[in-house]
Design goal:
Largest sheet of chain B: 8 strands, mixed
Radius of gyration of chain A: 21 Å
Helix content of chain B: 40-55%
Strand order of the largest sheet of chain B: 12-11-10-13-14-15-16-17
Number of helices of chain B: 30
CATH class of chain A: Alpha Beta
Number of helices of chain A: 13
Strand content of chain A: 15-25%
Strand content of chain B: 5-15%
Oligomer: heterodimer
Order of helices and strands of chain A: EEHEHEHEHHHEEHEHEHEHHHEEH
Helix content of chain A: 25-40%
Distance between the termini of chain A: 15 Å
Number of domains of chain A: 1
Structural class of chain A: alpha+beta
C-alpha cells in the first residue's frame, strides 16, 4: 500500500491563529515609511507574530509565503525567504514570494492553507507587503502589445481608476453621491473603531528614522481622515475622467504597509496550544472582464458560497476591500444588501485605512477575526476583494465562538477522511 | 564653567561636524505616556561615525534643558537617547580635543561634558539609553549617565578606551561603572581591555557584565527598547542589576581596593607605567569610592584637563587617528591600484616553517590555490601537513567553519617540482637567507613561470637589488617582508628595488590589502625599517652590557619607554643566532653603528638560547655558567646613560634612514614600529618620543615632526 494514495489522505481543517499588520502609511516622500524598506516592514510583522504566540516554536513553521505585486528591489529576491531570514527564523524554514496583485496576501493565505489541508504543512506564515512609495503601481511592467493589437484588454483596463469609472457606466444606479456617502461612512466607522480600540491591537509598532528628524515610532495608520463629510468629498476632482465620479475620496489611496498571519492545521493548533480565531470554510477566485475588474468579488463569492454549501443569507459579517466605493456598492447591490448594512465593514475599510496592494487580504482577516470575537452570534463571515486585470477573491470563515462551532478533537481526524477522486 | 564659556569653546570649532540631537515625541505603548526620544545623528552615512565635539555637546545640553522643563510641566514621562544606524555615538571628537591649546579649554571641554550629562541624569523623569551600536568613551558614558540602558545584540565596539588613548573616562564613567558592574569588572573594562590591543565589548558581553539592563535583537531594537521603557515607567518591570555594588559597603571597599591594586599590576606589566593615563584612571577610581558623584566629577575634570595637555595623549591620537586609521589605509608612495594585476595562483618556494605560515595566510585570506615546493617529498609533505594541522586548529577553536576548513586545505598543495608554478601569478621564496641560494631559486623559477609572474622575496636582511641582478625580468622582483608570527603581526614591508615596476608594486599593495596587512613602502636598504631600528636599539643595550653594565641595569634601562618587552627578552624571542645574523648584515652595511657582540657570539656558540632563565622562585636570573662564558669591560653605565644613548642612537639612525629615503617620512617609521614591533601609541611609534625627550634636537639639530602634530601645539 503506497502511503500517499488519495483514498487514505485526510483533508485537514485549517485555522487562522493570529494576524498582525504594520500601521499603513501614505506613499511618497512625506509618508511615514519614506526611506523605510518594504522587507523590513514584513520582518516587523513576522517577529510580532512570534512574540504574540510564544507557544509556537519557530522551527515548526513549515512555510513563509509573502505577497508583493512588484517583486523587485526591496520587494524582490523571493521576499518570503528573505523576510524569514531577516526575521531571525531558523534557516530550516523555507519561504517564497507570491503575486496576485491586490489579493496577494489573500492568495498567500489560500495557497498555504491548501498546503495545510493537503498535509504538506502544519503551520505557516502568510502575508503581504506593498511599499507603493518605493514601487509605484505598474512600475517596470511591460504589457504585451497583443493586449492592444488583438483587443484582448482595453488599455484603459490597466488603470484601476478607469475600471472604476467603467463600473459606474455599467451600473448607472450607483451615483457619485452614493459612493461619496459610502466613503464618508467608511471614514466615520474607522474613526469609531479606533476610539473603541478595535484596530490598535492588531498593529505592530514600527520605528523609522528620517534624515534630520531622528527615530519616530508609528503606532497608528497615517491615511485616515476622520471627520470627512459628503460635502468635503463632493469638492474633489475626478482625475480619471472629466466630470467623472471616482475621486481620491471615494477610493483607497496609494499606501505602504505589510501584514502577516499564522495559519495552522486544527491538529497542530491543538498540539501547540495556539488560539483559533477563525476556521477556513472555503475560498474561490474568479475572473471577470478586466475593464470592470471591480465586479470580481461577485462571482468569486458565489463560487465560494457554492463550494461551502452556503447561501449569502448565511453570512453574518462582510470584510470587503474598498479599492473603490463603486466596486463595494456593485457587490452590495448584486446581493441586495443595503449600502449602510451593519454587517459590512464594521471598522470602515480601505477608503479610510489605505490599501497597500498585496498586503490588504490579511488586514481583512484580522478585522473579521476580531469581529467574530466580539460578536458570537455570527457563525460565518467573508473576506473578499477585487483584483486588477479582472478578478475577484473570496474566503469564507467560521466563527469558533459561535455556539454551533464544532471544535477540533483528535477523534475527528479520522472522521474527516474524504474519499478521493480515485474512489 | 558657565554657558558663555561653553559657547566660547564651541566657537573655537567652527568646522566641527556636528552630531545633532533630534527629538521625537513617542506615545508609549499601553498608555504609559509621552516619551521624548533623542536621536544623535550627523546626517552622514555609516562610514562617518558620530562624535561629540563642543558644538554637539552644547546642542545636546540645550535639548536636554528643554526636556527637563517639559518634564517639570508633566508633559513627558521619560527621555531616551539612541543613535543613527550602527552608532550610539563614537565618543569625544579626538581630533578636536587634540587641538585644544590651553589647559583651560580642556577643562571647559571636560566640564561641558559633565554639565550636559548631569542634566541627562537629573531630568526629573527617568532617562534611557538605547545602545543600538558602537559606543566608545564619552559615547558609552551617555549611556552610563542614563537611568536605564538597553543594548542591541548586534551592537559592536562598546568600550571605555580612555586609558589607551591617554585620558580617563572622565564624563562620569569612572564613577558610575564600578558601582554598576562591580569594581573588578570595571577595571577589566577601563584598564585591561584598553591595554590589550584596545579590546572592545560586544552587546551581549556588555549585557552579561551588567552594563545594560535589557538586550534586544537589531531587527526591531528601537521598537522593543521603547516597549521595555514603557514597562519600566509603568512599574511593570524593575531591572535587576546583579553586579551592582554599594560603594559605601565595607566588603565592597575591600573588593574595590583589591581591584585597583590588580589594575595597577596589570598596567605595570603592560606599560611599565610609561604613560600616565592608565594610572590616573585607577587613581580617580580609588579616590572616588568615598566621594559623591559631584566630587568625583570635579576630580575627573581636573584630571582630564591635565591629561589633555600631555604629549602621551597627543602622541596616541597621532598614532591612532593619523597613522593606524588613516595613513595605513593609503600607503605613502603606493602606485595607482588600477595598475595591479589579478593574482589567481600563488607559489611558495620552500616548505619550512616560514613558508608554511605564508602558504596558510595566502590560502586563508586570498582564497586562491597555493602550491609549496621543496627539494624532497618528505619536506613538502611536512609543510602541507603543517598547514592542514593549523587549519584543523582554527576549526577546533571555531574560528572557521568546516566548509571553510575544507576549502583552505584543498587550496594548499605541494610539489617537488617547480613546474607546479607554470600558471602562478605570484611566487614568493622563503628559503635560507643566503644570497646565492635565493638567486639560484629565482633563476629556476624564472625559467618556468610566465614573463608577468611576480617574484617576491621574504628576506629580512639581504639586498633585493642584488637578488634581481641576474634576472631576465628584474622589474618583476619585489621584497615582501612579513613579521613573525605571520598570522598575527599586522605589518608588511614592501621593498622596492631600483628596477621594480609600478604594476608589480601595485599588485603587491593589493595583495597586502587582501591579506589584511598594513603595508609600508620601503627602499631596498639593509634590514629595511623595523629590524634596523630594533637592532640598533638592541645593539646599544648589548654594547652597554658588554662594556660592563650589569645585565639588570642594561636590560631595564628602557623601561621608561614602555616597550612591549625588554631588549634581552626580545633577542631571545627572535633567536640569538637570527639576531646576530641580521646584526652582521647591518654591520657589513653600516659599520660600527651596529657592533657585533663577541659575548653574543659566545652564547650562540655554547648553545645558550636566552640570557635570562627563570630562577628557583620564578624571577629571571642569569645562570653563573652563562656569565662565565662572557667577558666584560670596565666602563659600566647607569640606566639613565643607557636610555639616553639608546634614544640618541635611534634618533641618529632614523635621521639617516630619512636622509637615505628608506621611507617617505617619519610617519612611516612610526607606523612600522607600531604595527611591526608593537611599540606603544603613547610613544607615537617612536619619533614623537624622540622629539619629546630632545634626542632629535641633540643628535640631528631638529625635530622629526612639527610641534602639534604629535605633541602639544606650539
Amino acid at each position: 500500500m503506497s502511503p500517499s494514495r488519495s483514498a487514505q489522505r485526510n483533508v485537514r481543517d485549517v485555522v487562522f491563529v493570529d494576524g498582525v499588520r504594520t500601521p499603513f502609511g501614505k506613499a511618497g516622500e512625506k509618508g511615514i515609511y519614506a526611506g523605510t524598506r518594504a522587507d523590513d516592514l514584513v520582518v516587523k510583522c513576522i517577529r510580532e507574530l512570534m512574540r504574540r504566540n510564544p507557544s509556537l516554536p519557530a522551527d515548526r513553521i513549515d512555510e513563509v509565503a509573502i505577497a508583493a505585486t512588484t517583486q523587485t528591489g526591496d520587494q524582490g529576491l523571493t521576499i518570503g525567504r528573505t523576510a524569514a531570514l531577516l526575521a531571525g527564523l531558523p534557516r530550516t524554514v523555507p519561504g517564497f514570494a507570491i503575486d496576485r496583485m491586490c489579493a496577494g496576501a489573500m492568495t498567500a493565505v489560500t495557497t498555504t492553507a491548501s498546503g495545510i489541508g493537503f498535509g504538506a504543512y502544519d503551520v505557516v506564515i502568510a502575508g503581504g507587503v506593498e511599499h507603493m512609495g518605493n514601487h509605484p503601481m505598474g512600475a517596470g511592467a511591460d504589457p504585451n502589445p497583443r493586449f492592444m493589437s488583438e483587443r484582448l484588454v482595453d488599455p484603459a483596463a490597466l488603470n484601476m481608476g478607469n475600471t472604476a469609472e467603467n463600473l459606474h457606466d455599467r451600473f448607472p444606479a450607483i451615483t457619485k453621491d452614493r459612493t461619496d456617502t459610502y466613503a464618508a461612512a467608511s471614514q466615520a466607522k474607522l474613526a469609531a473603531a479606533y476610539s473603541n480600540e478595535q484596530i490598535q491591537h492588531d498593529l505592530v509598532p514600527v520605528a523609522t528614522m528620517k534624515p534630520g528628524q531622528g527615530w519616530a515610532l508609528h503606532t497608528a495608520d497615517e491615511p485616515p481622515r476622520p471627520g470627512t463629510t459628503v460635502a468635503d468629498l463632493a469638492e474633489l476632482r475626478t482625475p480619471f475622467r472629466a466630470h467623472g465620479r471616482v475621486t481620491a475620496g471615494n477610493a483607497a489611496g496609494l499606501n505602504d504597509g505589510a501584514t502577516a498571519a499564522v495559519l495552522a492545521s486544527a491538529e497542530a493548533a491543538e498540539e501547540l496550544g495556539l488560539t483559533v480565531k477563525m476556521r477556513l470554510v472555503s475560498y474561490a477566485f474568479a475572473g471577470v472582464e478586466p475593464e470592470v475588474m471591480g465586479i470580481g468579488p461577485v462571482p468569486a463569492t458565489e463560487k465560494a458560497l457554492k463550494n461551502a454549501g452556503l447561501g449569502i443569507e448565511d453570512i453574518g459579517l462582510f470584510e470587503i476591500n474598498e479599492a473603490f466605493a463603486v466596486q463595494v456598492l456593485s457587490f452590495l447591490d448584486h446581493f441586495g444588501i443595503a449600502d449602510d448594512d451593519p454587517r459590512v465593514n464594521r471598522y470602515g475599510g480601505a477608503i479610510a485605512v489605505g490599501h497597500p496592494l498585496a498586503s490588504s487580504g490579511v488586514r481583512l482577516m484580522n478585522q473579521l477575526a476580531r469581529q467574530f470575537e466580539e460578536d458570537h452570534s455570527v457563525r460565518y463571515g467573508i473576506t473578499t476583494m477585487c483584483i486588477g486585470l479582472g478578478m475577484g477573491a473570496t474566503v469564507i470563515w467560521e466563527n469558533p465562538h459561535h455556539a454551533a462551532y464544532e471544535s477540533f478533537t483528535t477523534d475527528q481526524a479520522t472522521a474527516a477522511t474524504t474519499e478521493g477522486a480515485a474512489a | 564653567m558657565s554657558a558663555a564659556e561653553f559657547q566660547k569653546l564651541a566657537a573655537l570649532f567652527p568646522d566641527e561636524i556636528v552630531t545633532h540631537s533630534y527629538v521625537q515625541d513617542i506615545q508609549l505603548p499601553g498608555g504609559a505616556g509621552t516619551f521624548a526620544l533623542i536621536t544623535l545623528d550627523n546626517g552622514l552615512d555609516h562610514s562617518k561615525p558620530t562624535t561629540l565635539g563642543p558644538n554637539t555637546l552644547v546642542e545636546l545640553g540645550d535639548v536636554l534643558e528643554k526636556l527637563k522643563e517639559r518634564a517639570s510641566r508633566g508633559e513627558i514621562v521619560g527621555v531616551g537617547v539612541t543613535g543613527k544606524p550602527y552608532f550610539l555615538v563614537a565618543g569625544a571628537d579626538l581630533s578636536a580635543v587634540k587641538t585644544l591649546k590651553e589647559r583651560e579649554h580642556g577643562l571647559w571641554m571636560a566640564q561641558l561634558g559633565h554639565a550636559v550629562y548631569s542634566t541627562l541624569a537629573n531630568l526629573g523623569v527617568p532617562s534611557f539609553a538605547f545602545i543600538n551600536g558602537l559606543a566608545l568613551g564619552g559615547g558609552l558614558e551617555i549611556a552610563l549617565q542614563s537611568t536605564y540602558r538597553t543594548v542591541s545584540t548586534g551592537a559592536g565596539a562598546l568600550a571605555l578606551p580612555e586609558a589607551f588613548i591617554g585620558l580617563v573616562p572622565g564624563w562620569g564613567g569612572v564613577y558610575i561603572l564600578p558601582r554598576l558592574i562591580g569594581p573588578e569588572n570595571a577595571v577589566k573594562v577601563m584598564i585591561e581591555n584598553p591595554l590589550s590591543n584596545n579590546r572592545t565589548l560586544t552587546g551581549p558581553e556588555a549585557f552579561e557584565l551588567g552594563v545594560a539592563d535589557a538586550m534586544f535583537e537589531p531587527a526591531d531594537f528601537v521598537e522593543q527598547s521603547l516597549a521595555w521603557a514603557a514597562r519600566v515607567i509603568s512599574g511593570e518591570v524593575t531591572p535587576e542589576r546583579k553586579n551592582s555594588v554599594d560603594a559605601t559597603d565595607d566588603t565592597v571597599a575591600a573588593r574595590w581596593t583589591a581591584a585597583v591594586a590588580a589594575g595597577r599590576a596589570f598596567v605595570e606589566s603592560k606599560t611599565s607605567n610609561a604613560s600616565p593615563a592608565p594610572g590616573k584612571v585607577l587613581d580617580v577610581m580609588e579616590a572616588n569610592r568615598t566621594m559623591t558623584q559631584a566630587g568625583s566629577a570635579e576630580l575627573e575634570c581636573e584630571t582630564l584637563a591635565g591629561l589633555m595637555q600631555t604629549d602621551e595623549f597627543r602622541s596616541t591620537v597621532y598614532a591612532f587617528l593619523d597613522l593606524v586609521q588613516k595613513r595605513s589605509k593609503r600607503p605613502a608612495g603606493a602606485p595607482d591600484r588600477k595598475l595591479a594585476r589579478p593574482v589567481t595562483k600563488i607559489g611558495v618556494v620552500g616548505a619550512g616553517l616560514m613558508a608554511s605560515q605564508l602558504a596558510l595566510l595566502f590560502a586563508r585570506q586570498l582564497k586562491v590555490p597555493v602550491v609549496m615546493t621543496d627539494i624532497d617529498q618528505a619536506r613538502v609533505d611536512k609543510g602541507v601537513a603543517y598547514v592542514h594541522a593549523e587549519v584543523d586548529k582554527l576549526l577546533a577553536k571555531k574560528r572557521i567553519k568546516q566548509d571553510a576548513a575544507n576549502r583552505t586545505k584543498a587550496l594548499i598543495t605541494g610539489s617537488v617540482s617547480k613546474e607546479a608554478f607554470t600558471d602562478a601569478d605570484f611566487v614568493i621564496e622563503a628559503v635560507f637567507e643566503e644570497l646565492h641560494i635565493k638567486k639560484q631559486v629565482f633563476a629556476e623559477v624564472e625559467a618556468i613561470v610566465s614573463p608577468e609572474c611576480i617574484l617576491a622575496t621574504n628576506t629580512s636582511s639581504l639586498s633585493v637589488t642584488a637578488m634581481a641582478e641576474d634576472l631576465k625580468h628584474p622589474e618583476r622582483l619585489v621584497g615582501f617582508h612579513f613579521f613573525n608570527p605571520v598570522a598575527v603581526m599586522p605589518l608588511l614591508e614592501i621593498v622596492r628595488a631600483p628596477k621594480t615596476d609600478d604594476a608589480v608594486l601595485a599588485t603587491a599593495f593589493e595583495l597586502a590589502k587582501g591579506l589584511k596587512k598594513t603595508a609600508v613602502l620601503v627602499k631596498d636598504a639593509a634590514a629595511f625599517v623595523v629590524n634596523r631600528i630594533l637592532l640598533r636599539l638592541m645593539g646599544e643595550v648589548i654594547a652597554a652590557f658588554d662594556e660592563g653594565t650589569p645585565a639588570e641595569v642594561a636590560d631595564s634601562a628602557l623601561r621608561p619607554m614602555g616597550l612591549p618587552m625588554s631588549p634581552f627578552t626580545l633577542s631571545a624571542m627572535v633567536g640569538l643566532p637570527v639576531a646576530q645574523h641580521v646584526q652582521e648584515s647591518l654591520h657589513a652595511a653600516f659599520g660600527d653603528r651596529f657592533p657585533v657582540s663577541q659575548n653574543l657570539q659566545k652564547l650562540i656558540d655554547n648553545g645558550v638560547k636566552s640570557l635570562w632563565v627563570p630562577g628557583p622562585d620564578g624571577t629571571p636570573v642569569i645562570p653563573a655558567e652563562t656569565l662565565a662564558i662572557m667577558s666584560f669591560g670596565n666602563t659600566p653605565s647607569t640606566g639613565e646613560e643607557v636610555l639616553r644613548r639608546t634614544q640618541d642612537a635611534l634618533a641618529e639612525e632614523i635621521g639617516l634612514m630619512l636622509e637615505e629615503g628608506v621611507v617617505a617620512g617619519p610617519e612611516d617609521i612610526d607606523l612600522c614600529v607600531i604595527m611591526g614591533a608593537g611599540w606603544p601609541m603613547f610613544l607615537g611609534g617612536i619619533t614623537p618620543y624622540l622629539d619629546r625627550v630632545g634626542a632629535s634636537e641633540r643628535v640631528n639639530g631638529k625635530r622629526f615632526l612639527a610641534p602639534g602634530v604629535a605633541s602639544a601645539p606650539a
